[in-house]
Design goal:
The complex is a heterodimer of chains A (about 110) and B (about 110). By secondary structure, chain A is mainly beta. Chain A is built from no helices and eleven strands. Chain A is about 0% helix and about 60% strand. In chain A, strands 2, 4, 5, 9, 10 and 11 form a six-stranded mixed β-sheet that branches. In chain A, strands 1-3-8-7-6 form a five-stranded antiparallel β-sheet, with no helix packed on it. In chain B, about 0% of the residues lie in helices and about 55% in strands. Chain B is globular, with a radius of gyration of 13 Å. Classes of the chains: A mainly beta (about 110), B mainly beta (about 110). Chains A and B meet through strand 4, strand 5 and strand 10 of A and strand 5, strand 9 and strand 10 of B.
Chain lengths: ~110, ~110
């Protein structure tokens, strides 16, 4: 299957700092998505970003499908941004979401 | 809509006992997914349904695991008999399209002792 590598695996930020999380794929993927799992375990869909760039408040995501990577930008980080960020993609049929290993982010006040 | 509702939130059971996890998807969503999350294996898809029909159960680890979706508003994941290695957080998710727009439930934390 397609290998998904997320980097860095762990990240500690001071509140207010910016960061970039990366997701690399071993092959072309469908329907790239980003999720945030908060410290209480809730998974929230952040972006559906098969290609191009999207922004939502302090978060933005860019996928360069031809180069097999996606980036998640967090600007002016807040303690509530802490948790684990996952990228995920669908199989060719489009209905089976496979998750990367995640980036664990801690934002300190 | 109240989102995807899972019950129970926490379950502690003894090895060998039957465990049933429950999920109510978002009304109108045609796809329902069961995932398992562990430290070792991360988030894994166990099975998914489309219009109440199981489409792919290749992620179900063993015959001890079974899932049903008797109607559009309810699904169960059953483990019988349970084993300590089944301890994990089990998530249910639903989607309108299957490709994106996933909404996850809060999960059931299962501990088998």
């Amino acid at each position: 299957g397609i290998q998904v590598e997320q980097s860095p695996p762990d990240l500690i930020l001071q509140e207010g700092a910016n960061s970039t999380l990366r997701c690399n794929f071993s092959d072309s993927v469908n329907n790239l998505q980003w999720f945030h799992q908060n410290p209480w375990g809730q998974l929230i869909n952040l972006f559906y970003i098969p290609s191009g760039t999207k922004q939502n408040g302090r978060l933005s995501a860019t996928t360069v499908a031809t180069e097999r990577y996606s980036l998640l930008y967090i600007s002016s980080s807040q303690t509530t941004d802490s948790g684990v960020y996952f990228c995920a993609h669908n199989n060719n049929a489009g209905n089976m979401l496979t998750f990367g290993g995640g980036t664990r982010l801690m934002v300190k006040p | 809509d109240a989102g995807v509702i899972q019950s129970p939130r926490h379950e502690v059971t003894e090895m060998g006992q039957e465990v049933t996890l429950r999920c109510k998807p978002i009304s109108g969503h045609d796809y329902l997914f069961w995932y398992r999350q562990t430290m070792m294996r991360g988030l894994e898809l166990l099975i998914y349904f489309n219009n109440n029909v199981p489409i792919d159960d290749s992620g179900m680890p063993e015959d001890r695991f079974s899932a049903k979706m008797p109607n559009a508003s309810f699904s169960t994941l059953k483990i019988q008999p349970s084993e300590p290695r089944d301890s994990a957080v089990y998530f249910c998710a639903s989607s309108l399209t299957g490709a994106y727009g996933y909404t996850f439930g809060s999960g059931t934390r299962l501990t088998v002792v």
